[in-house]
Please model this.
Amino acid sequence: MKALAAALLIWAVLVLPGPPVFPVELPVLLILSRLRPLRLVLWLGLLAILAVRVADAGMGMAFGRPFDLVADWPLLRSGWDLARASVGDLRVALAVLPVLLIVWGLHAALRQGMALPLLALVLVLPPDAPAVRLVSSKAEAVGRTLADLRIFEAAAQTDPFNGAPEVLSALRGHDAAILFVESYGRASFDNPRYARHEAILREAEPRLRARGYAMRSGWLTSPVIGGQSWLAHATLFSGLRIADQGRYRALLQSPRRTLFHLADQAGLHTLAVMPAITLPWPEGRMLGFAEILAAKDMRYAGRPLNWVTMPDQYTLSVLGRRMTGQGMFVGAALISSHAPWVPVIGIEDWDRIGDGAIFDGKGWDARSPEEVWRDPETIRDQYRDSLSYALRVVMGFAERQGENLPLLVVLGDHQPAAFVAGGDSRDVPVHVIGPPDLIRRLDGWGFSDGLVPCLDLSPWPMEAFRDRYLGAFTDEAENSAD
Model:
């Protein structure tokens, strides 16, 4: 029985989670396992296959794609931290325990004297070579990634706005901001469960028009889904598709100028508002920000919301104090609608926010992330409610601006994971809100009037936005990038 269990365990590592087949690698492994000097090599090989399969499953669930052996290593630590914040140390440990048992079981399996007749138990299954295919596919993927990186590095050396004498001249005397709303995707319009998000926009639209704003809305296709927000930010800022960490590093090392480099060249003060940044962030300077407000710089005196360091309303209240109509160009990443989506809180009186001490936890949802994440339906409800909060806060922020209205770009960074969104679309909404004379410059874009984009509008790649934005708001090249 021990030998049978050992053979079945190795079979499972070679085959699952694919269809049940007879892995032609199994006889070879069983024979070689009888040679004691080779057992360690075989064990390490099986562990590598197991690790890749687990990584592929995790990346597929979170980001809708397999694990990239070249670019995804930096995600392991951040994924671990987010899992601990979402479901707690105990549940993470319980999830890891079966993997450790399999590791131990493989070691024991390779020590068993397994007779080849045991293979007859699985010979009724179709023959295949799943482990060989896995290794081959990963090798091909590495080659594609490296080739793609070379192409990207060449593209990053060029820029259609290199040598432009002046850009963003139409924004003189205006503040402008790009506000990313975390996990805000097409599901807010396509999935009936999230219909209240569209309702919030429709309710906000007449209030903003009464304040003197005009609005246009469309769709962008994000390079990511489920997470890695910084790749979407870099894509929009740089005008290049940044779909993985390798491209991100290559961008930072390239001479490519982002929207913020170009805004700084135009005499605008570039500011990053990043409440999720809690560690040193040298990338901010490389992305063109002259000033960075990270979490510690926001001087938040209230209670954090688990992983979320501070609520979006506080973040935008700080930004609102800085935007005085004197030529700010801001990039901000809002995080109240970031997983684990608990607690969802209410909106406070903007005039009483001050240092944020008002956000003291009174009246907040008392459930822990571990409690919420026990049930997929509850997770989806929490996502819906946290994004409702974020959209209400953003629209309230826009409504509160002074007579010298800013130009605001409000957009999603990516859809939430597919099990939350109910689909795997990578499209995110984008709303441009500002003074009518500036919004008229977008008439050639084909965007919908107002805050609700038509569902049949063709999306732009997110990387197309930078050059179109620069073309629209640069008088010398007005609409040249359309």
About this structure: The domain at 167-477 is CATH 3.40.720.10 (Alkaline Phosphatase, subunit A). The CA atoms of residues 271 and 473 lie 19 Å apart.
